[in-house]
Write a structure and sequence with these properties.
This protein is of the alpha/beta class and 488 residues long. It contains 15 helices and 22 strands. The structure holds nicotinamide-adenine-dinucleotide.
Length: 488
Amino acid sequence: MGRSAAGSGVKPAHYVGGEFVREGGVGSFPLVDPVDGSVRGDVPEADRAIVDAAVGAARGALGVWGSSSVEERAAAMRRIADGIEARFEEFVDAEVADTGKPRELAATVDIPRAVGNFRAYADLLYGRPERSYSTAVPGWSGGSGQALNYTTRRPLGVVAIISPWNLPLLLLTWKVAPALAAGNTVVAKPSEETPSTATLLAEVIHEAGLPVGAFNLIHGHGAGAAGEFLTAHEGVDAIAFTGESATGSAIMRKAAEHITPVSFELGGKNPAIVFADADFEDAVAGTVRSAFTHSGQICLCTERVYVERSIFDAFVAELGVRARALTGYGPMISAAHRDKVVSYYRLAVDEGATVVAGGGVPSFGDERDGGFHVEPTVLTGLAQNARTVQEEVFGPICHVMPFDTEDEAIALANDSRYGLAATVWTTDLSRAHRVAPRVEAGIVWVNCWNLRDLRTPFGGIKASGIGREGGEYSLDFFSEPVNICIKI
Ligand code: NAD
């Protein structure tokens, strides 16, 4: 299974005002190993008082951190990146222990990307232009005049960052790095399922010597608990959230009261369109990767595959063979999530699906049978309006449907409340350029999946999100322009 025998010895703790705290709050809850269902430890649950203290500490640090120089902030980002790298194996162990994901994934994607997030923003800070406009301008009541306008950016203030369990450190640092780089102070809450690497990050940030209170970490649940206390807090100036669309709606309702700006990375039901002129091997192998990496628990994973009719049967047969051949895959994050995914397997059959591969719970004959694995599953035969084709499952499931024309493929891909990512497989260059911009998604990959350049805009349209993150886009969200006009 590629797991560390030692697992992870991290004891999750809140980090508030420069202190690690495990006491107080409203007790603790068990941390469950998704691979075998055993209890590995416990996680402290923050109450309102701890959230208040964290927001207060962040507010208190704003003056110092918000006015620090670009050099100071960039150097701090680099120290954090170095600190994660220095404890690389510990971070990998912790991520593997919390998520059950294959070690290779954590070691090649999750933790290196977390390091990369801090390095990228250290570098990007130096490339931020400030603008000026000098011209004769018409005045309103006092005649026209000559004026110099300059536009500078300032941090938003105290930022609440809420992240999910699927790529715990990667997605947390994807927001923490630009938020801190832009001079904000942060109160972060990782998913209750995956508290360990966030705790290690707090240790690294502590060692990196940021001003006390610049970064704070609280643990706990979301609705009616720490997550809600934080995002509804009047002392929070902005919210950056990654998670389910329904959670985004709940957070937005609370944020509306204080008109708190939000950046949302939400759910998806991502389509792949496979044209008959595609490189067959690339398209099949790419679809296996995009549907089943991390057992489908990546927001960018493909759950809907539309294949041109002339290659439909061959494509489905090959996809089925490869899905059945997958081994070494990790579990769903929790029993509840396993049950949700399995309920969709059953629903699909009730809706009339043909099960080409998987569709159940595997039996390994070892301790993994106590864990939360489900089989990689390929389905066909459902109508476009079936719930299994419309609702996000967030597991290793894809439904394959034939199409006849380019327009039909685009219409089917766009027939979704979501619009996060899409994949187009074709060797016809003109077709690629014709189709990609018409697909309603924030990110469209052609002949690849999940190739990421950290400078590019990342995010979804429709129910998949609000705003874009990545490179300059994150720094734009985490700061606001102020225009100053001087009559000369
Ligand atoms: P989730 O929405 O259940 O939880 C995410 C976080 O929000 C957790 O930390 C949780 O404690 C917190 N939370 C829950 N309810 C809250 C509330 N009412 N107020 C404040 N905080 C609350 O999501 P999840 O199950 O952890 O993650 C899976 C989901 O995340 C999927 O829908 C997936 O598509 C999405 N996702 C999106 C992206 C993206 O970039 N678009 C990336 C990864 C995951």
